Request: fold
Amino acid sequence: MSIVNYFFPMAKEKLRKSLFSSYFSTTLSIALVLFLFGLLGLLLINTKRLKDYVMENVGVTLILKEKTREVDILKLQKNLESTPYIKSTKFVDRQTAAEELKKDLGEDFVDFLGYNPLLSSMDVRVHAEYANPDSMSQLEAKFLKFPEVQEVYYQRNLVKQLNSNVQKLSLIILILSILMFTIFIALINNTIRLSIYSKRYLINSMQLVGATRSFIRFPFIVKSVLHGIYGAIIACFILLMIFTSYQSELKDFIDFQDSVSLAILVGSIFTFGIIMTALSTYLAVNKFLRMKFDQLYY
Reply:
C-alpha cells in the first residue's frame, strides 16, 4: 500500500468526523434555542390560565345564620352553583370550622369558652373575570339578598392588590417576550453565520468556477432548513419529556387537554426554526458572495 493510499483514508475519516461534529453542534444549538422559544410560547399560551388560577383563588366566605336548616343550605349551594359567576362552593359546618381554627391557634378555644361561637359558612370561589373590586362589591350585595346569609367576608385589599399585580405581570410578560424573541433571533442568526463562515472559501471557489449565486445558495439553505427541522424535533421531544415528568405539578397552569393550543405551539416551533435558519443562511451566504477573495481573511 502506498503512502498516499494510506493517508488519504485517514484524512477523509478526519474530515468526516469534523463535518459531523460541526453539523451536530449547530443542530444542538438551534434545538436549545427552539426549546427556549417553546417554553416562551407555552408561557404566552397559558398566560390567561395562569392569571385565572391566581384570581380564582380569591375566596369569599358566606357566614350563614345560626338556625339555617340543612335543606335550606343545600338549596342555597345549588342556587349559587347554578349562577354564571360562581366556580365552586364548599359548605363548612360549625364543628369543622372549630377544628380548623383549633389547628390554626394551637389550642382548644371551645373548652376555654365553654361553647362553640362559630357559625356554619359557605366558602365560594368566583370565576376570574368577576374577581375585581367592582364585581365583588356587586356580588356581595347579591349574596346578602339570600335569606340564609348573615354576613359576607372577603379580603378587599387583597382583591385590589391582586388585580394591580396581574396587570403589572401582563406588562412584564409582554416586555420579556419581545426581549426573548429578539434574543432567539440573534442566537439562531449567529449560529448559522458561524456555520457559513467556516465555508466561506468554498463559496468563493464555487464563484470562481462560474456557479451562479442561486446555485451556491440552494444547498446551504436546504442544509440549514434541515438543521431547523431536526432542532425543532429535539426541542419538542425535550418539552414532551418535561410535560410527561411534571404533568401533575403543572396541571393547574397548563391545559394538557387543549390539543389545539399544543398543536399551535409545535407548529410555531417548526415554523420559527425553518424560517429563521433559511433567512439567516440566505443573508449570510449573500454576504460572502459579495466579498472579494482578499476580504475573506478578515
The CA atoms of residues 60 and 155 lie 8 Å apart. Residues 19-51+175-297 form one domain. Confidence is low (pLDDT under 50) at residues 1-8. The longest helix spans residues 3-45.
